[in-house]
RNA sequence: GGGCGGUUAGCUCAGCUGGUUAGAGCACCUGCUUUACACGCAGGGGGUCAGAGGUUCGAAUCCUCUACUGCCCA
């Protein structure tokens, strides 16, 4: 084995091995409960980013863990056609080629996008594999595949038949760049500083003006009324009067409506029903006409009179100039307000009245609220419940039609003869009502999230009654980012319940955003994006997976830093070298790996005890989705206990002259078990090392061909050994005390010191470790006393009073007695403070009365221990 | 405007349902070619857990308020 771990040499090799062995494939076993994760479908808009890296890591860990626990485990991977997003990127490519989709035509354009899709499907799949994903590629799905597409049409038709999908004219958000309607969720509100223009509308009878305030003067062209609040004393007498609309000289009424705020502007507002949601509702109540003033691209249309053809913002300028000229502009105030932007392209969206398809959400939301409220679905972390409920309880109808070419075509055909609609799952050529062939399919496609909402069941075969659907639905965990809780998770719950009558998943695990070193969001415009594939190449995939988990709490944003990556890499290398050491100790030929439990030395019982406690803790943490904490425990066990102490102590036992129990069986057992414990987190290095061990050990040592299908460790409580832990703690304390004394007294590293150890009752247990302690502390000879130190040691000695033992190091070389006194004084002060605190607590009647007996006893023991130590310290140090 | 987080060592963060002497990594300081590992080893310094009040025998942990900060919704 080389000196350092080189991930490049092993990762591909093992991934191909796993693939060839078909380990990723989920098999139905009706005797067992499956564990299922449906992978969030990856957008085909581009390559993977670090957010995907986190998702893949978290899900792969859960999947590998459950697979090793012996559960039939399905991780179903897939892709999302990402309607608008993909169309935007492909259009950009077309633009760079000097063409556009209209020149190409719909059919050619769709072919072009399919080509793009096929390319990215392949690239992204390979990237996921690079990251170690143990997904079932045989079940991979794409939202545009025939199966999921049929699910989409079926779900649409079902909702339509139930009256939950309707087509109607409503105010929607229009993106003038993407030329499509978008849902409320796809609009980002940003506060912009604009102006509030106060404009005079002259009364028709010439009796003066009413002044209205607006942030969008160009919409004056679409006004069909002026409204005031019915309770507004200022305007009581003008209700019912008529005013002349500036710029276009149309005569419109002044009406009263509750929706008008008394505080905004002058209290009188202009009503533009075709371009404002509140105004639209006012218009409905007062039967006002709608006047559209915008073309699709947000230039002014024929209703704009003289402003026709101007862009909306040019028009705004022109109108303001004209108002000023006509002395109709009272004043301009700076005004900051939220302006909607298209999430995809950043263009300011226009609210406008348009005929679109909508889903009635309230009846779908109710059962989805109940599913979370009654605990059938658990959201981790819990605080997202509140956010979920709040959104669901105020849910509004969902605009699902998009004026795009890329996506699922709406399964509705219009009859040009009888005018009726045919809504059908299977494409049709004739009208259901009059059999006419003169029909035309709705040109629009569905919101990409409509198909995403069905993902948990469309991927398993719904609406067909498939084996997978019966066995794997509902899935166990839905792991995704909190940023798409509304977009996706909420809608999956609603549609899952609606389509199947059952929840789509039992637990929702939400992760946060991965940010850069400075805590900034990664984005192309900031230029701080990191490609997970590059990172994996530089540090190793396992190191990257570690980095994602360090300091990760569910639902919290995290930073990906080089320091974390280096740590992960170092840990992999540490493991590599620990294994190298163990492997070096394995003799050629016969080796007996039986652990003789009856006669194990203390450090063996200690490391086995620590191992099993770690296993117990890790399994508990995994159950609670505390993946980061679980990894941390394994890391600390392996590094600080196994490597730092157990291996170091084993070294003396591996010397040829050593005649006692060989440490090899335990050394190997603990390492091998730890590798299995760690495998879900660091699949590549653990497989490589496990195979290395397997190769050198007798045939039949392990029955599986790969660590990834070996058993996940289960804690053996019989291995918990308090007394071994107590003895080892003392041994570690003694070694540390001597090292510490050496260091503080600047003893040359190669110089041997001597020490006397007063072990009391523990002495017999410690004495067998003389040689190990000598080596570890570079102290020889060590003299043991089966008593506690009595009397005073005054001269030329460093005294360390430990929990169970005392160490006295008499050395002429430790000259700095003043420093030593100071250290002792500090320690005494610390102990005295502890004692005071403990005594106060133990005198407190309410503490004694109310605290559990175990806590009181613990405090008593602690006090006794401190007092004992203080007494010894004072006595021995001669204070 | 409504809601949800965060504030713990110089930096980045753990610390889950209240009960250790509050931890880790990095950084810093002092040493080290100790035959697995300098991607390493040994030792060390560093925190009144944002502030105030409250509940409790006991609070980093629960409650209230304040300050700063981030996000979501409207």
Explain this structure to me?
- The protein is of the alpha/beta class and 879 residues long.
- The strands form ten sheets. It has a four-stranded antiparallel beta sheet with strand order 7-6-15-17. Strands 11-12-10-13 form a four-stranded mixed beta sheet, covered by helices on one side.
- A hairpin with a 5-residue loop joins strand 19 and strand 20.
- Helix 17 (562-585) runs parallel beside helix 19 and helix 25 (817-843) runs antiparallel to helix 27 (853-877).
- The relative contact order is 0.09.
- The model has no long low-confidence stretch (mean pLDDT 86).
- The structure holds one RNA strand of 74 nucleotides.
Indicate the topology.
Layout: H1 7-21, E1 35-38, E2 42-43, H2 50-68, E3 73-76, E4 78-80, H3 83-96, H4 101-104, H5 106-130, E5 141-142, H6 146-161, E6 165-175, E7 180-182, E8 187-202, E9 209-214, E10 225-228, E11 242-244, E12 251-256, E13 268-271, H7 277-286, H8 312-325, E14 329-342, E15 350-359, H9 362-373, E16 378-380, H10 384-393, E17 398-399, E18 401-402, E19 412-415, E20 421-423, E21 439-441, E22 445-446, H11 448-453, H12 455-458, H13 467-472, E23 475-481, H14 485-500, E24 505-511, E25 514-515, H15 532-539, H16 541-549, E26 558-559, H17 562-585, H18 602-623, H19 627-653, H20 664-678, H21 683-696, H22 722-744, E27 753-758, H23 763-766, H24 770-777, E28 779-785, E29 797-801, E30 806-810, H25 817-843, H26 845-850, H27 853-877
Parallel strand pairs: 1-3, 2-4, 4-5, 10-12, 16-24, 23-24, 25-26, 27-28
Antiparallel strand pairs: 6-7, 6-15, 8-9, 8-14, 10-13, 11-12, 15-17, 18-22, 19-20, 19-21, 27-30, 29-30
The structure holds one RNA strand of 74 nucleotides.
């Amino acid at each position: 084995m080389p000196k350092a771990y080189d991930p490049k040499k092993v990762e591909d090799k093992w991934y191909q091995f796993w693939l060839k062995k078909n380990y990723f494939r989920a098999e139905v076993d009706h005797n067992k409960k499956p564990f299922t994760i449906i992978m969030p479908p990856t957008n085909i808009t581009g390559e993977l980013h670090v957010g995907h890296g986190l998702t893949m890591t978290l899900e792969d860990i859960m999947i590998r863990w459950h697979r090793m626990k012996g559960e039939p485990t399905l991780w179903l991977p897939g892709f999302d056609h990402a309607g608008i997003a993909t169309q935007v990127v492909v259009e950009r490519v077309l633009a760079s080629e000097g063409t556009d989709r209209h020149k190409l035509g719909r059919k050619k354009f769709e072919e072009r996008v399919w080509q793009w899709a096929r390319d990215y499907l392949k690239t992204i799949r390979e990237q996921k594999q690079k990251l170690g994903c143990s997904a079932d590629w045989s079940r991979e799905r794409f939202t545009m595949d025939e199966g999921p597409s049929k699910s989409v049409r079926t779900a649409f038709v079902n909702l339509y038949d139930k009256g939950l999908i309707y087509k109607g004219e409503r105010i929607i958000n229009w993106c003038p760049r993407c030329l499509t309607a978008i849902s409320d969720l796809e609009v980002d509100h940003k506060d912009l500083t604009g102006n509030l223009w106060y404009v005079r509308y002259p009364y028709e009878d010439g009796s003066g003006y009413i002044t209205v305030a607006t942030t969008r003067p160009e919409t004056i062209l679409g006004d069909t009324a002026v409204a005031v609040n019915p309770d507004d004393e200022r305007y009581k007498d003008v209700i019912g009067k008529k005013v002349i609309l500036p710029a276009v000289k149309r005569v419109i009424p002044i009406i009263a409506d509750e929706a008008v705020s008394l505080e905004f502007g002058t209290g009188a507002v202009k009503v533009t029903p075709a371009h404002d949601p509140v105004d639209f509702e006012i218009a409905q109540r007062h039967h006002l006409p709608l006047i559209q003033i915008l073309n699709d691209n947000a230039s002014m249309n024929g209703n704009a009179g003289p402003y026709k053809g101007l862009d909306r913002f040019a028009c705004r300028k022109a109108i303001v100039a004209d108002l000023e000229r006509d002395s109709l502009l009272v004043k301009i105030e700076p005004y900051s307000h939220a302006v909607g932007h298209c999430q995809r392209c950043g263009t300011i969206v226009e609210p406008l009245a348009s005929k679109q398809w909508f889903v009635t959400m309230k009846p779908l939301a109710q059962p989805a609220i109940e599913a979370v409220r009654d605990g059938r679905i658990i959201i981790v972390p819990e605080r997202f419940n509140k956010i979920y409920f709040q959104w669901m309880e105020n849910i509004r109808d969902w605009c699902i039609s998009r004026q795009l070419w890329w996506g699922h075509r709406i399964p509705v055909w219009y009859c040009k003869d009888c005018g009726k609609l045919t809504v059908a799952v299977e494409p049709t050529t004739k009208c259901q009502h009059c059999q006419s062939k003169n029909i035309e399919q709705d040109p629009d496609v569905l919101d990409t999230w409509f198909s995403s909402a069905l993902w948990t069941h469309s991927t398993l075969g719904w609406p067909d009654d498939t084996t997978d659907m019966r066995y794997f639905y509902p899935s166990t965990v839905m792991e995704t980012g909190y940023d798409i809780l509304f977009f996706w998770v909420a809608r999956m719950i609603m549609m899952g319940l609606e389509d199947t009558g059952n929840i789509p998943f039992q637990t929702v695990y939400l992760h946060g955003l991965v940010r850069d070193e400075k805590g900034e969001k990664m984005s192309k415009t900031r230029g701080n994006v990191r490609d997970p594939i590059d990172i994996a190449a530089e540090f190793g995939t396992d190191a990257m997976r570690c980095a994602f988990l360090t300091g990760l709490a569910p639902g919290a944003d995290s930073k990906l830093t080089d320091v974390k990556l280096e740590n992960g890499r170092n840990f992999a290398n540490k493991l590599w070298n620990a294994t190298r050491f163990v492997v070096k100790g394995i003799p050629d030929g016969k080796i007996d790996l039986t652990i003789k439990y009856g006669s194990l030395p203390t450090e063996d019982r200690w490391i086995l005890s620590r191992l099993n406690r770690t296993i117990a803790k890790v399994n508990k943490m995994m159950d609670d989705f505390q993946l980061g904490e679980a990894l941390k425990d394994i890391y600390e066990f392996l590094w600080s206990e196994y490597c730092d102490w157990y291996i170091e102590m084993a070294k003396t036992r591996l010397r040829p002259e050593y005649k006692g129990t060989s440490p090899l069986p335990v050394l190997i057992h603990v390492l091998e078990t730890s590798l299995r414990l760690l495998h879900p987190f660091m699949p590549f290095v653990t497989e490589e090392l496990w195979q290395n061990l397997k190769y050198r050990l007798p045939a039949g040592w392990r029955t599986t061909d790969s660590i990834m299908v070996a058993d996940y460790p289960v804690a053996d409580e019989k291995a918990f050994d308090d007394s071994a832990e107590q003895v080892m703690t003392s041994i570690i304390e003694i070694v540390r005390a001597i090292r510490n004394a050496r260091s503080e007294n600047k003893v040359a590293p190669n110089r041997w010191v001597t020490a006397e150890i007063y072990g009391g009752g523990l002495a017999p247990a410690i004495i067998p470790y003389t040689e190990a302690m000598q080596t570890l502390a570079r102290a020889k000879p060590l003299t043991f006393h089966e008593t506690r130190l009595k009397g005073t040691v005054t001269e030329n000695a460093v005294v360390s009073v430990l929990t169970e033992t005392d160490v006295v190091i008499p050395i002429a070389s430790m000259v700095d007695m003043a420093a030593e006194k100071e250290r002792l004084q500090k320690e005494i002060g610390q102990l005295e403070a502890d004692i005071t605190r403990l005594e106060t607590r133990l005198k407190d009647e309410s503490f004694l009365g109310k605290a559990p007996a175990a806590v009181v006893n613990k405090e008593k023991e602690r006090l006794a221990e401190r007092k004992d130590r203080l007494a010894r310290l004072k006595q021995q140090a001669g204070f």
